[in-house]
């Protein structure tokens, strides 16, 4: 499941997130690193152009990349913030 390439990388990111939370990700470290290296280049562009992702999905992607040492900008959360820089109540 982890190695299979999908047109939508979001389910793959959820799987990696789950493996990390279950503390079994170290068993799949090589596969995870390959997937993240592949997705990091394209996923940030997908997130910027596709405004349909919810806060939970963006947070999972952000957490997975940051946990594995990728420098993903926190600007991906800007669409969920109001003009004062606080998260909108409707998105939480």
Automatic annotation (TrEMBL):
Source organism of this protein record: Hibiscus sabdariffa
PANTHER family found in the cross-reference section: ALPHA-HUMULENE_(-)-(E)-BETA-CARYOPHYLLENE SYNTHASE (PTHR31225:SF93), OS04G0344100 PROTEIN-RELATED (PTHR31225)
InterPro entries recorded: Terpene_synth_N, Terpene_synth_N_sf, Terpene_synthase-like, Terpenoid_cyclase/PrenylTrfase
Statement: the UniProt record of this protein carries the keyword Magnesium: yes
The keyword Secreted is annotated on this UniProt entry: no
Terpene synthase N-terminal domain segment(s): 7-90
Family: Belongs to the terpene synthase family. Tpsa subfamily.
Protein name, UniProt field: Terpene synthase N-terminal domain-containing protein
Keyword terms, alphabetized: Lyase, Magnesium
């Amino acid at each position: 499941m982890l190695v299979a390439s999908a047109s939508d990388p979001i389910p793959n990111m959820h799987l990696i997130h789950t493996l990390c939370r279950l503390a079994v990700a170290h068993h799949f470290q090589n596969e995870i690193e390959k997937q993240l290296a592949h997705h990091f280049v394209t996923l940030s562009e997908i997130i910027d152009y596709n405004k349909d992702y919810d806060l939970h999905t963006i947070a999972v992607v952000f957490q997975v990349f940051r946990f594995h040492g990728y420098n993903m900008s926190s600007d991906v959360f800007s669409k969920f913030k109001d003009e004062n820089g606080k998260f909108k109540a409707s998105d939480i």
